[in-house]
C-alpha cells in the first residue's frame, strides 16, 4: 500500500489506527474484480475507498457520518478518483429508509474501524445492510475490541480514558453476534495481526485525537486492546 499513498498523505487523513494496515488483512477475501460495486461503510476520509478503487478497479460508495461528501469528493477528484468513488454523508442507522439503494446493488461491503459505533446489536446487519448486498456478495469488517472481557470492570489505568457505550468486545463476542444473522455466513472471525502497527502509525500523527490517545495507549501497554477481523458472504 505504501506506493499508493505517501506517509504524509496517509497520516494527514487518518481518523484512528491505520485503516489501510487493518484492511490489508481482509481486502483479498472480498474477491473483487474490476467494475464491481463496493460499499465502504464508515470510510472516514476515504483512504480505504481510494485503495479499493486503485488496486481492484472497483466502483465504491464511500459512506461516512462525520466527513462531508463535499470534502471527500474534493479529495477523490484531486487524486483522480472522481468518477469511480461516490461519497455520501449518511448515518447507517437510518438505512434502509434514508437512501433508496437498489436491492442487491453491492457486490461487497467493507468496514474498517467503524462497526462498533453502529453495529453492536443483534439484527442490525440483516435489517440495515443485507438487503443491499447481492446473494453471494462478500463482507469484511475490522473492528476494535478487547483481548479478554473486563469481567471486573474497566482497569483503573484505563478508567480516565473510557467512554460510555464504547462497544469494545472480544473476538468471541463479535463472532457470536454475527453468527446470529440470518443473511450473513461467517467464514473467518479472528484477531487482526496488525493491531500494534496500526496504533503506532496513528499515534505518530498530529491529529488532536491521536495526541489524546497517546496517554491511553501508554497506559494500555499492549495488554488489553485488539482488532477483530471478520469475513463472510451473503447466504440469502
TrEMBL record:
Keyword line: Methyltransferase, S-adenosyl-L-methionine, Transferase
PANTHER family attached to this UniProt entry: METHYLTRANSFERASE, UBIQUINONE BIOSYNTHESIS O-METHYLTRANSFERASE, MITOCHONDRIAL
Coiled-coil ranges from the UniProt annotation: none
Molecular-function annotations in GO: methyltransferase activity
One of the protein's GO biological processes: methylation
Source organism of this protein record: [Enterobacter] lignolyticus
InterPro entries xref list: Methyltransf_25, SAM-dependent_MTases_sf
Database matches in Pfam families: Methyltransf_25
Protein name: Methyltransferase
Amino acid at each position: 500500500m505504501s506506493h499508493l499513498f505517501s506517509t504524509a498523505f496517509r497520516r494527514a487523513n487518518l481518523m484512528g489506527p491505520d485503516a489501510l494496515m487493518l484492511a490489508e488483512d481482509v481486502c483479498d477475501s472480498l474477491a473483487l474484480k474490476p467494475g464491481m460495486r463496493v460499499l465502504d461503510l464508515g470510510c472516514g476520509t476515504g483512504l480505504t475507498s481510494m485503495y479499493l478503487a486503485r488496486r481492484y478497479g472497483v466502483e465504491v460508495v464511500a459512506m461516512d457520518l462525520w466527513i462531508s461528501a463535499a470534502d471527500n469528493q474534493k479529495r477523490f477528484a484531486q487524486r483522480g478518483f472522481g468518477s469511480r468513488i461516490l461519497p455520501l454523508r449518511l448515518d447507517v442507522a437510518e438505512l434502509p429508509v434514508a437512501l433508496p439503494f437498489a436491492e442487491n446493488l453491492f457486490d461487497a461491503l467493507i468496514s474498517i474501524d467503524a462497526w462498533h459505533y453502529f453495529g453492536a446489536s443483534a439484527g442490525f446487519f440483516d435489517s440495515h445492510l443485507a438487503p443491499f448486498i447481492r446473494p453471494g456478495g462478500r463482507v469484511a469488517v475490522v473492528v476494535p475490541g478487547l483481548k479478554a472481557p473486563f469481567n471486573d470492570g474497566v482497569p483503573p489505568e484505563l478508567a480516565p480514558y473510557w467512554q460510555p457505550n464504547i462497544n469494545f468486545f472480544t473476538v468471541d463476542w463479535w463472532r457470536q453476534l454475527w453468527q446470529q444473522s440470518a443473511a450473513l455466513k461467517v467464514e473467518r472471525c479472528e484477531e487482526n495481526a496488525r493491531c500494534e502497527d496500526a496504533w503506532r502509525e496513528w499515534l505518530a500523527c498530529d491529529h488532536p485525537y491521536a495526541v489524546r490517545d497517546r496517554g491511553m495507549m501508554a497506559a494500555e501497554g499492549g495488554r488489553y486492546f485488539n482488532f477483530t477481523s471478520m469475513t463472510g458472504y451473503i447466504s440469502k
